[in-house]
Amino acid sequence: xxxxxxxxxxxxxxxxxxxFILTIVAVIATWVIPAGSYSKLSYNAPTSQLQIKNPNGxxxxxxxxxxxxxxxxxxxxxxxxxxxxxxQAISIPKTYEKLKxxxxxxxxxxxxMVQGVIEAVDIMVFIFVLGGLIxxxxxxxxxxxxxxxxxxxxxGHEFLLIFLxxxxxxxxxxxxxxxxxxxxxxxxxVPVFIAMGYDSIVCVGAIxxxxxxxxxxxxINPFSVVIASNAAGIDFTQGLNWRVGGVIxxxxxxxxxxxxxxxxxxxxxELSYSYEDHESFDKMWSVASDDGxxxxxTLRKKIILILFxxxxxxxxxxxxxxxxxxxxxxxxxxxxxxxxxxxxxxxxMGIGEKGVVDAFVEGASSLVGVSLxxxxxxxxxxxxxxxxxxxxxxxxxxxxxxxxxxPVFIIVMLLIFFVLGFIVPSSSxxxxxxMPILAPLADTVHIPRFVVVTAYxxxxxxxxxxxxxxxxxxxxxxxxxxxxxxxxxxxxxxAFVLIFGGGILVAEVLIY
Length: 512
Description:
By secondary structure, the chain is mainly alpha-helical. It is built from 23 helices and 6 strands. A 4-stranded antiparallel β-sheet has the order 4-3-2-5. A two-stranded antiparallel ribbon has the order 1-6. The longest helix is centred in the C-terminal third of the chain and has 29 residues, at 483-511. The radius of gyration is 24 Å and the shape is globular. It starts with 14 loop residues before the first helix and ends with a helix.
């Protein structure tokens, strides 16, 4: 009798472990990378003055005039500050100073994790309310009934829903930068995708991947291309035609990739990259029930589903038209949750006051892990910022690309933003940090500044498909998906962004 030989298999750690390891790496980096900072410029609305915070901590105030900006070497229209176009402090070129090293202690590991969670409390409350709303809708039985009705009508045309969702997410990303808000769409769409025979990869691909591709090729996204263009001292319409063409090609690529993968999984579920976890995934998200009574699609259940579905376009409208933040979005969702709780608690099939409250609490508690992941990721950025090493990397990057010829300059710039995307995963944060420093370098190699803005978009978002410091870990935690499974699926998309994006950048350099 022979004993089967055991083979060593490297397993990727879970989301919490990855972020814990990265927090330790960030602490080590503060000991290795020299500390330094640029002077930071901001507009003080109450006093109508420009405020300069120097690396040594002193603060200078100067009149808010174009003349003062010219003296500082900041090639930005003063109206961008006074009108509120730029609200965050920007880096002032040629002001970098080395500072005394600020190494983080081992105590920074737990304290930064806690502080990161505190800073992410607005998103966490939004996620908790969303989870509670979902819990109540599930308890009403409306999900099961509506899902059965939908699957019957879409039989044979299942991919059409994936196509529509992906296109809407691409549009949301390119127009208004839907990122964290996309979390709200998983609970309503994942059970539908499961019922159609798809896996967790398709769910993340149609929502997170598609919205991120849209943001990567932003056209008028105020949190990416607009604020970056403002910080670069140009109008955001410069290079718009290139970005429009890019997002069309990128959308076609993503839809085609999703079609290829979903068709493969539909034909043979064992070909799924996440097949080993499909049972636990289906158990977590499937809402089908064997209770014939609960399957009846009553008028009350239809009203509940309509109210539930209406919350999402209202959220998108609020973000795009009214500039809603997460607290207002959470209040909007809570309003609909209260109405749905009343409908679910009352009536012949009602589950009572205790039933709906328990359903809300259970739904909210199911997303605690997701909320904590977002906070822990922010903790890593806090360690790097407190160590004052982000500006040092920016200074090194600016020196690296000096005196290069145009095509080489822009490709190296793309790779620089790829690396910086890990250090600063916030699109607006990286824009105000880097654009005043790196955009003027375009003048030295005689290319338009909008090309640097485009390189920033492509480079940062190619990284954000991968970076644990961004939203990806929260997404994977929500769907209980292994990071290794995601990497296997997403690497062709990262390669596409870098190769296709690099081609666009070189073409822009050569034509202009």
